[in-house]
Amino acid sequence: xxxxxxxxxxxxxxxxxxxxxxxxxxxxxxxxxxxxxxxxxxxxxxxxxxxxxxxxxxxxxxxxxxxxxxxxxxxxxxxxxxxxxxxxxxxxxxxxxxxxxxxxxxxxxxxxxxxxxxxxxxxxxxxxxxxxxxxxxxxxxxxxxxxxxxxxxxxxxxxxxxxxxxxxxxxxxxxxxxxxxxxxxxxxxxxxxx
Length: 194
What we know:
By secondary structure, the protein is an alpha+beta fold.
């Protein structure tokens, strides 16, 4: 599936969505369990008690493969459920990137503080050149994560199509339902503003 025809949220770190379903939360979880148990399924994972985690099978999984975490809760009206989804990398990838961001960010902050302190007391502040190097490192880390997400986009489509097909969120053979930003409905994707 090409990412040009994607109906998923645009590239950004850990995209989220929420959608209302006419199915109860128990029925949503039951359908996901049934889909995961089906022979020849393209997705593996778990679904239980208002939560589901969908992943790509190990034989085609790579470092940048996404996973889809879902929480399912009953609507206050009692007619249907609210499904919240979060696409993200495997926890070890996410933790590594957060660690590197924090490490380089703290180094940047330290270099800037020391450099500005040197400037205020009239000393040589050539250490500030390292701030540019560290800013370049932060940009590089962001670009690596962006291109990693692009590498996993087709698999993100697989996860989302599994969800839509098992919950009958679109008619078979039809194009996925698309919602404009801010539009609500009980089919398709609406990006969460939270």
